[in-house]
Write a structure and sequence with these properties.
By secondary structure, this protein is an alpha+beta fold.
Length: about 775
């Protein structure tokens, strides 16, 4: 009601997520919830070999099978003018550091083909597609596609990717090395190591993980013959980029494609890319002139989803007599798989290795190598968990080997607030932050000082108890452009069009809280419109914790423009000078009087246009598109305690605390939930997740949920989490970014706790995943 007090969303309030009722009551609309009458079904035929020459493909029997409408292979691509998918491997970073080849040559990217033609390069590589009237008919026909393979030697294990006599995957990529570059001063580092009082080393393989999503990847494409236009339903990160990629692959104009992303059934980076199957689905629909749907089976997802992590580190830390850090050196090998999707994880790992510590010198080399595995791509907090694992493990190893207290060693080398802004030895500039306070809060929450008593109590129960600590920092950058359109509706609503797509982050709530505050309208009045390219003109998508930070900037500027235009309209209606109009709580009033108009009244007047100048006619709205080159730097710390059963090696997480500085918490409740999820995701990789290949034949061994272990709620205690809010000066909201922090230090803090628990057995390091068998073997290999 106009003239009454309006209850806005309130930035900083723990408002319950408005989307949850829809999602938890089965009212969500995921890709496979959409059905088009008469839709056909597609099945993809995949390589059963890790590496093999394709001598021939016989599709005659499949094409003659009952109900089959179409069989496609690489031989059909040229005839229909179908292109490769665009490559994002060579997109430059938005910060100063962008990993390049040290010899000055360009990065080497592979083609991003829809079908393998001359050679299959990993188990699961798409070879053909069968479209039939029903899914059973398509499955049956797919079994009849006969592929004549000539098996070739394969390579999958990351520590062995480089060297002599490795099988070559691509003629234009000698030794399979796509990128070999680095940051830092190699000579200074070598000199520091040579003169150091203490030098410690870590060699560790950070294993491959995969995003096991609620809804496996799927696409549904409908063809409108009258408009010669395709509508594609696909749960993805960025509908606009997705539309452009499909248009490029099909060789048609972007205006002939409409992409719609509804609710997204899990992501963490896995869905952020335009996969070959999506373009094949669209190609089949256009060729058949009817709707075609495809959904990966769970086993297909394990084989063909782009995986995460998978890097090998050889890192060295040099210290002086008192434990002062002198130098950091690291060689990082990133397994990018059979096709180069992005080098982002390697870049992030290398540039962030100094973490929150002061290193006078550092040198990091990063090598990206192709292999006979599914491609890897950015996966939750891409590269940052790997970097924190390497650095925090090095610090713990140094403390244990050189006789330093692990906490005091960290405190001694922490970058203080008096050094902000701080430029690392590798060249990143942290704009602000209070690392010592975050560390102190985490130690207090985790009751570090009370641990000895808990360890003794566990010992009396026959259990080995250990405690771990890890600091972290991450960089939130991602695609640097975002766009919004905000319109105030006379009937009492506000439409917010934004180029991000939520995959569980709570955008409908947190974005509404901001606009509700800025425009003084009811929280419930905000309607978020995303994911439909007929509505969303452009945008950067949701990844790298960019959504709230970048959306906040453009929504804030658009809201300011609406208020300024509203003041001019209100001045006309109230017969006052624009400078005398003030805006607060959703109302425009003449300062010092009781004469005012509500924002929806002003919107109605603008649409009618009666008595208003021509430039004030039309909907009360604004749009804003910004290129934002300043990354955010969230940071924090975690404390974890575990207990180990000495008879079985089973590890139980018994206490877990975390502190995250997100700059400004728009909705603390959502952020706490994201931290909890990230902690489970990171700890899950530390303890059990492993998407691994048999090095002998390149077969994916973790090809189902029987073979790939996922953490469950019962595997963890209640978490103790806290938020710090030291605003960043790089944006008006002060937001650094949230959502990745829980996962970023989790690998390190869990492994640090396990190694501490096993210290009496002479265990100094354990590779992930720390399965019961691996822990038991480590214990029995020591004292």
């Amino acid at each position: 009601m106009e003239g009454t007090t309006i209850e806005t969303g309130g930035i900083g309030r723990p408002v319950r997520r408005k989307e949850d009722k829809r999602l938890v009551t089965g009212s969500g609309r995921y890709t496979t919830d959409v059905a088009i009458p008469g839709q056909a079904h597609m099945v993809v035929v995949r390589s059963t070999h890790a590496h093999a020459a394709i001598r021939g493909i016989d599709t005659a029997s499949a094409a003659a099978s009952p109900g089959v409408l179409l069989v496609l292979t690489a031989a059909d691509l040229a005839a229909d003018g179908i292109n490769e998918l665009p490559s994002y491997s060579n997109i430059p970073g938005i910060v100063d550091l962008d990993l390049q080849n040290s010899d000055g040559s360009p990065k080497k990217a592979t083609p991003h083909v829809l079908f393998a033609s001359d050679r299959a390069r990993y188990v699961g590589d798409p070879i053909a597609a069968v479209v039939a009237e029903t899914l059973p008919a398509a499955l049956d026909a797919a079994e009849r596609v006969a592929v004549d393979y000539a098996p070739l030697p394969s390579i999958t294990a990351t520590p062995t990717l480089t060297g002599k006599d490795v099988p070559e995957l691509w003629p234009h990529i000698p030794g399979n090395v796509c990128l070999d570059g680095g940051f830092g001063d190699a000579e200074a580092v070598q000199a520091a190591i040579a003169g150091a009082a203490h030098v410690v080393n870590l060699k560790s393989w950070i294993q491959r993980a995969t995003g096991v999503m609620l809804e496996t990847r799927a696409a549904l494409c409908d063809y409108d013959a009258d408009a010669d236009r395709l509508t594609i339903y696909c749960g993805c990160d960025n509908s606009v980029r997705f539309k452009r990629d499909i248009a490029h692959a099909l060789g048609i104009g972007e205006e002939r494609i409409r992409a719609i992303a509804g609710d997204v059934g899990g992501n963490y980076g896995t869905r952020n890319w335009t996969y070959p199957e999506y373009a094949i689905t669209a190609w089949a629909a256009r060729r058949l002139k009817r709707a075609v749907c495809w959904q990966a089976s769970r086993s297909e997802a394990f084989l063909s989803d782009y995986h995460g992590r998978d890097c090998y580190a050889d890192a060295t830390l040099a210290l002086d007599d008192d434990g002062g850090f002198l130098a950091l050196k690291a060689d990082i090998t990133s397994n990018v798989g059979a096709y180069t999707i992005a080098f982002v994880p390697l870049t992030k790992t290398t540039e962030l290795l100094p973490s929150v510590y002061h290193f006078p010198s550092a040198r990091v080399r990063g090598v990206a190598v192709a292999s006979n595995t599914s491609p890897t791509a950015p996966y939750r907090s891409a590269g940052r968990p790997e970097a924190m694992f390497i650095t925090e493990r090095l610090v713990d190893i140094a403390a244990r080997e050189c006789g330093f207290d692990p906490i005091e060693l960290r405190r001694r080398n922490l970058v203080g607030t008096d050094r902000m802004p701080y430029r690392t030895a590798l060249g990143l500039e942290y704009d602000s932050g209070d690392f010592p306070t975050a560390m102190a809060r985490a130690l207090e929450m985790g009751d570090w000082d009370g641990f000895p008593a808990r360890r003794e109590a566990a010992k009396a129960r026959g259990r080995l108890r250990g405690i771990g600590f890890a600091n972290y920092i991450e960089i939130t950058s991602g695609f640097p452009m975002e766009r919004t359109e905000i319109t105030v509706r006379p009937e009492g609503g506000v439409d917010v069009v934004i180029g991000t797509t939520s995959s569980g982050q709570g955008h409908e709530t947190s974005f509404a809280q901001c606009v509700s505050d800025w425009l003084g309208v009811p929280f419930e009045a905000i309607r978020l419109l995303t994911g439909d390219t007929d509505v969303v003109k452009d945008g950067g998508g949701s990844h790298s914790a960019r959504s709230m930070r970048m959306a906040g900037i453009v929504m804030g500027k658009a809201s300011e423009e609406i208020v300024e235009r509203g003041k001019r309209i209100a001045a006309q209606l109230l017969e006052a000078a624009p400078g005398d109009i003030a805006f607060a709580a959703g109302r425009f009033e003449i300062s010092g009087t009781d004469r005012s108009l509500g924002i929806f009244e002003v919107a109605a007047a603008a649409e009618k246009g009666d008595g208003l100048p021509q430039d004030l006619h039309g909907p009360l709205g604004a749009e804003c598109q910004e290129l934002m080159q300043h990354p955010g730097y969230p940071y924090g710390a975690q404390v974890c305690e575990v207990e180990v059963d000495p008879d079985t090696g089973a590890v139980e997480v018994v206490r877990y605390s975390a502190v995250d500085d997100v700059g400004r918490a728009i909705n603390p409740m959502i952020l706490h939930g994201q931290t909890h999820g990230g902690m489970v995701q990171g700890a899950g990789q530390a303890l059990m997740e492993n998407a691994w290949y048999d090095p002998a034949d390149g077969q994916m061994v973790a090809g189902s949920l029987l073979d790939y272990a996922l953490p469950r709620a019962g595997d963890f205690p209640s978490f103790d989490t806290d938020l710090m809010e030291v605003p960043t000066p790089t944006n008006a909201l002060g937001v650094r970014g949230g959502g990745e922090g829980g996962a970023t230090p989790a690998l390190a803090v869990v492994v640090n706790a396990i190694v501490d628990a096993l210290s009496d057995y002479g265990v100094t390091h354990i590779d992930m995943p720390a399965t019961p068998e691996r822990v038991w073997r480590a214990m029995n290999g020591g004292k």
